[in-house]
Amino acid sequence: MQSAKNIYTTDVQLQMLTSHVKAMVLRSITGEPLPDVEKDLFDEISAESMQMAEEVVSWFGNLPIEEAYLLSVHFEVARDNEPE
User: Fold this and answer.
1) pTM, two decimal places
2) Number of domains into which the chain is organized
């Protein structure tokens, strides 16, 4: 699948991303917190992937920024894919 940012996902990556977003929606509704996230683990995530993730998290209005760190991994992995 291609996005407006020319990032491509495989079917499996799209399924994993969808599952993560569904979990974010549920946490947004229930208020369930994330486990502690070590931000140092995300130092190699590109600024573009992090920015996209932060934008998605901001749509919810009530999720912590740590959600963006986890979500950014999906975008970063997809950036490495070639178009099919």
Assistant:
1) 0.85
2) 1
